[in-house]
Amino acid sequence: MKQQPIVQFKHTTKIIGRKTIVNDLNFDVLAGEVFGFLGPNGAGKTTTIRMMVGLIKISRGDILINGHSIASQFEQAIRHVGGIVENPDLYKYLTGYQNLKHYARMVPGISKKRINEIVEQVGLKERIHDKVSSYSLGMRQRLGIAQALLHRPALLILDEPTNGLDPAGIRELRNNLKELAHQEGVAVFVSSHLLSEMQLMCDKIAVLQKGKLVSIENVQAFISKDSISRVYLEVEASQTELTKMLIADLNKTAIAGSGPNELWIQMNKDEVPELNKLLLENGVRVLSIHVQERTLEDKFLEMMEEEQ
Amino acid sequence: MIGLISNEMMKIVNRKLTWIILFLLIAITAGSFVMNKLTEEPVSDWRAEQSELIERYQGQLEIDELSPQMHADTENKLQIANYRLENDIAPVSENPWSALLRFSGLIEMVIIFAIVIAADVVSREYTSGTIKLLLIRPHSRSKILFSKYISVAVFALCMLAIVFVTGYGVSAMFYGFGNLDTTDLFLNAGGEVTEMNVFLQTVKMYGLSFLPILSYVTLSFAISTILRNSALAVGISLFIMIVGNSIIEATSRISWLKYLPFANSDISLYIFHLPARPEMTLGFSLTVLAVYIAVFAGLSWMVFKKRDTA
Questions:
Q1: CB-based contacts of A112, cutoff 8 Å, min separation 6
Q2: Residue-wise pLDDT tens digits, A66-116
Q3: How far is residue B73 CA from its own chain's centroid?
Q4: What is the spatial distance between Cα A245 and Cα A253, in angstroms, rounded to a whole number?
């Protein structure tokens, strides 16, 4: 599938009062990818999403969706967008079905059949004719996703979509989003604080901090780039001191673990065989050695610390 | 556009508040007509009754503290009563149209309920957060606001129709269906006693009252759109409506008050020839109201279109 850009940020900036909330964003979101949007609280994630859907004005620059400017060609641009902004706030005094009918009426060409199809897809068939006020948060989230997908958008924007879903629901959502992106070519734009979830879900990760884009990469490259891993080592208790000295020869520092014979070492993964060899040659009896793989969370926190 | 309006209608109709309001509307209307019937005293000799009334009116006119409005009203009634005796025209027998004309106060109830509905229709989307999902659809904000305004206006019109039909229905049970050709004595715009068709006067009063209703609806709608707070919208609109009634009196003394909406928002004043100032005409009042409607609607449109939705 040819990966054409669905969203194009062009020097997108938002200034409120004298404060620059979002500062000169320039990147594309491609068709067929799940795009993770990360950042600590107050980094400007929600502001960016609100600009993408035209809820707030862009101070400088523009955002193009399928080539249409959200600022000057709002109706053409937004036609291709489905989404949830913040919470899935739906009409609680209407039934789930009435809610979907409401949104279906706002876009031409959505049949009853399509509504029923989407209801089935998000697994709300049993409860769709109940009032939304009786729904759990997870069910509201599902209904929110149903209204977002109703008109087959080219861009799906989800703000914290895993909120309120149980583990099975999260997994289902993850698979659905991947399928939407990879099979149907939808660009899926997800923001979340659940980093482990983002690692499993996303193809690409962009990190926003203080309104600026600090990184944008494929998720695997993002995690492993210039990475220093933590290596766990377990030796005979009597040999702990000797081991520490040998590690010091490698210009590394060993930190004591929870047991007397456990050590943690910060080093690159490809240096592990060397360490192993050195220990063996000096007669250290290695009980256990393994590299702890880094997670998106480690990388993210590390990056945030660097930026501070 | 039709889709947007049916959405807004669906949202109004599916609310409990709407049904409570409709129930109250029908119950109060029916109740007023029933109470009126129960307290009615049969008239055996209309001439004796009119003479009695004339004496009472004359007595009232001698009281100094009578407000200008009351004074004018009593004078009008006196004039009609005298005219009846001089020309030997009996008061019209009870019929649904005359009954509806007497209950012009019910229109104020429609205004109050319409204010409540109008105050909610925009601000509720903000307080419940649903405004976000509403605005990210391929429709301009102007169209979305307009569909809301139209829906509230249509609902207010329905309430006015319900009052009219309920009132007619209840009176018809007591007085029969009434004759469309029934005439009665009214004062025309020049203050002369004239025979007029009662049905047409009724239709004129209720029909034209839609404009004052719409002006309060627009006011409440505008406040609720601008401040995003329905309680304030109801409060301010009701306050203005209540203060407005006392301003009608003041208008007779202070000339520029006639340009405020208050002295223009009671159409029954023209049906019973009680303009707040002699130079005020029905056309003047309707024009003033139309200008206010345009201003309030324009204000809410400008704010709604530009605002960042946080």
A1: none
A2: 999 999 999 999 999 999 988 889 999 999 999 999 999 999 889 999 999
A3: 19
A4: 9
Which contacts of B304-308 are long-range, i.e. CB under 8 A and separated by 24 or more positions? Answer: B304/B122, B304/B141, B304/B142, B304/B145, B304/B225, B305/B141, B305/B142, B305/B145, B308/A50, B308/A55, B308/A56, B308/A57
Per the CB < 8 A criterion, the answer to whether A74 and A54 are in contact is: yes
Residue in B3, B16, B310 closest to A105 by CB: B3
- Kindly tell me if the per-residue pLDDT of A2 is higher than 60: no
ipTM above 0.90, yes or no: no
Domain end: A205, A224, A243, which one?
A224
Amino acid found at A27: F
Q: Do A212 and A288 share a domain, yes or no? A: no
Here the tokens at position B67 are: 């407000």
Q: How many structural domains is chain A composed of? A: 2
Residues of chain B in contact with residue A107, where contact means CB-CB under 8 angstroms, are: 137-138
Statement to judge: residues A106 and A134 lie in one domain: yes
Contacts of B143 in chain A (CB under 8 A): none
List Cα–Cα distances, B46 to A109, B79, B85, B88, in angstroms: 69, 16, 9, 10
Residue A303 lies in a domain: no
**Residue A273 has which token pair?**
């065989």
Q: What is the pLDDT of residue B63?
A: 80
CATH (domain of A254): 3.30.70.120
A91 contact residues in B (CB cutoff 8 A): 11, 128, 130
Residue A307 lies in a domain: no
- Could you report the per-residue pLDDT of B1-15, keeping only the tens digit for each? 889 999 999 999 999
- In tens, the pLDDT along B225-271 reads 999 888 999 999 999 888 877 787 788 788 888 888 877 888 888 88
